[in-house]
Amino acid sequence: MTFYAQSRIHTEEVLAGFQGLSLGALIATLKTWNDERITRRELNALSDRELSDIGLSRADIDTVAKGHF
After folding, report:
1. What is the tens place of the pLDDT at every residue in 13-44?
2. pTM above 0.85?
3. How many angstroms separate the first and last alpha carbons of the chain?
4. Domain-embedded: residue 59
5. Residue 6 included in any domain
6. Which residue range is the domain that position 56 belongs to?
7. Helix, strand, or coil (residue 1)
8. Is residue 44 part of a domain?
C-alpha cells in the first residue's frame, strides 16, 4: 500500500507539469519540430556548392531550419 501511495504522488506530480498544455499546442510543437527536421535533412543533402549558390553555408542550416534567417 505504501508503494502505491508513493507512486501515485509521483504520477500526480508528473501530470501536474502538463496542466495548461492543450492537444493543439502539442500538435503544433510536433509539427514545427518535424518541419525543422525535414528542412535540416534536405539542406544537409545539398553539396557545399549548391548551398553557396543559394547564399548559405553549412553553418547556416540550423538557423534556416528554425526560421531565423
Report:
1. 666 666 667 888 888 889 999 999 999 999 99
2. no
3. 56
4. yes
5. no
6. 21-69
7. coil
8. yes
